[in-house]
Specification:
The chain is of the alpha/beta class. Helix content is 47%, strand content 15%. S-adenosylmethionine (SAM) binds next to α11 and α12.
C-alpha cells in the first residue's frame, strides 16, 4: 500500500459501524476462554496427547462438532494454533495454564458467574447506585460468598505477583521492623516484603476464613518465626504495635463510609511515629484509561460500594480518619503507594 495515498488510508480506517461490530463481538473472547477452562482442555492440548478433535471430544465427554467449533474459535482468538489435525496452546494461551506466573487464577475469578452475572446487570446498578450482588451492608460480601472470596485470593495473587517487584522498587521498607498487613489476603504482599527485608517481621490480619488459607500459604515461604497470622474484622478493630501498617488493594472495594471506618481503626491502633501505606490504583481525574473503566465498573457491580478514587479523594478519607497524607509514590504498575502519618486523632 502506498502510505501517502489518501484513498488507501481511508480504506485502512474501519468505519464506526465496523469498529462497533468488532467491539461488540469482542465479548466472545472471555466467554470462549470460560468454556475452555470449564472443560479443562488447555492442559490436554498443551501435552499434545490427543489424536485430533474426535479423540479429544471422547476424552472430555463432549459433542465433537461443537468442540470443533470452540477449538476453531479459540484459534481465531489467538489462544490455540492449529497443527494439522491437532490444536496446540499458543504462548498467549499458555498464560492460562497452571504454573508460577499463571494468569489462570485471575481468569477463574473474573469469569466466575459471581462476577459475570452482576456485570450483566450493570444498568440496574446505575439506576440504584448499588451493586447487584446481594450483600450484607454491614460486612460486605466476603463472609457471604466464601467460594468467591477464595477465587479472589487467586486473583490477588496474580495482581500481587505482577505488582510486587514494582512495589519493592518504589518503597523503602528498611526502617520498619514490624509490619501489619490489614486485609492482607493470604499473604502475597507480606511474604514478598519479608523475603526482601530479612530483619523485618509482620502480622497478616484478615477474616477467619482467609487467615486459614494464609497460614498454609505463609508456611510455604521459608519465613519461620518472622510472621504471625491474626483473624479479625478490620471494620471493628485493628491490632496495635506495628511500625508500618499496610492496606493493599482494600479501600477500592468499599464505599467512603466503610473506608473511613477501616482507616480510623488503623489510626486508633497506630503509635504517633507509625506510618500507613495504602497501595491502590488511583485515577488522575475524571478521564479514565480503558483499563480504569473495566476496573471501576467491576467495582460498581461487584463490590461493597467500592470505586476507583483520585489522590485527593483518598487524602480526604484519610483526613476524616485522623491521618495526614505525606506523599504519593507512583510505581511502574497501575498501583501507587500513598503514605500517611497519624494526624489529629479522630473523634
Ligand atoms: C482485594 S483483597 C486484597 C488482599 C491483599 N491485601 C492483596 O493486596 O493482595 C481484600 C481483602 O480484604 C479482606 N477483608 C474483607 N473484609 C474484611 C474484614 N471485615 N476484616 C478483615 N479483612 C477483610 C478480604 O478477605 C481480602 O483478603
Amino acid at each position: 500500500m502506498d502510505k501517502h495515498n489518501p484513498d488507501d488510508e481511508r480504506a485502512a480506517i474501519p468505519s464506526p459501524e465496523a469498529a462497533m461490530m468488532k467491539a461488540l463481538g469482542s465479548m466472545i473472547f472471555p466467554l470462549a476462554v470460560k468454556a475452555a477452562l470449564a472443560l479443562e482442555m488447555l492442559p490436554i492440548l498443551e501435552e499434545g496427547k490427543h489424536a485430533g478433535t474426535p479423540a479429544l471430544a471422547t476424552r472430555l465427554g463432549v459433542d465433537a462438532g461443537a468442540l470443533g467449533r470452540l477449538l476453531t474459535s479459540l484459534a481465531a482468538l489467538g489462544v490455540l494454533r492449529r497443527e494439522g489435525e491437532r490444536y496446540r496452546v499458543t504462548p498467549f494461551g499458555a498464560t492460562l495454564l497452571p504454573g508460577p506466573r499463571s494468569m489462570l487464577p485471575l481468569a477463574r475469578y473474573l469469569l466466575d458467574d459471581s462476577v459475570l452475572l452482576p456485570l450483566a446487570k450493570l444498568s440496574t446498578c446505575v439506576q440504584s447506585g448499588q451493586p447487584t450482588l446481594p450483600q450484607n451492608p454491614r460486612t460486605g460480601w466476603y463472609n457471604q460468598y466464601p467460594e468467591r472470596a477464595r477465587l479472589m485470593d487467586g486473583a490477588m495473587a496474580v495482581y500481587s505477583g505482577l505488582g510486587l517487584p514494582a512495589l519493592l522498587e518504589a518503597y523503602d521498607f528498611s526502617s520498619y521492623a514490624t509490619l501489619i498487613d490489614v486485609g492482607g489476603g493470604i499473604g502475597h504482599v507480606l511474604a514478598g516484603i519479608l523475603a526482601r527485608y530479612p530483619n523485618a517481621s509482620g502480622t497478616l490480619y484478615d477474616m477467619q476464613a482467609t487467615t486459614e488459607r494464609a497460614v498454609r500459604y505463609l508456611a510455604e515461604h521459608g519465613l519461620q518465626g518472622r510472621y504471625a497470622v491474626a483473624a479479625g474484622d478490620m471494620l471493628k478493630t485493628v491490632p496495635a504495635g506495628a511500625g508500618l501498617y499496610i492496606l493493599s488493594k482494600v479501600l477500592n472495594n468499599w464505599d467512603d463510609e466503610h473506608c473511613v471506618r477501616i482507616l480510623r481503626n488503623i489510626r486508633v491502633a497506630m503509635e504517633e511515629d507509625a506510618r500507613l501505606i495504602v497501595i491502590e490504583g488511583v485515577i488522575a481525574d475524571a478521564d479514565y484509561a480503558a483499563e480504569d473503566a473495566f476496573r471501576d465498573l467491576l467495582l460498581l457491580a461487584c463490590s461493597h460500594g467500592g470505586r476507583l478514587r483520585t489522590v485527593e479523594e483518598l487524602r480526604g478519607l484519610g483526613g476524616e480518619a485522623g491521618l495526614t497524607m505525606l506523599r504519593v509514590i507512583p510505581t511502574s504498575t497501575a498501583f501507587s503507594v500513598l503514605e500517611f502519618k497519624p494526624g489529629t486523632r479522630p473523634r
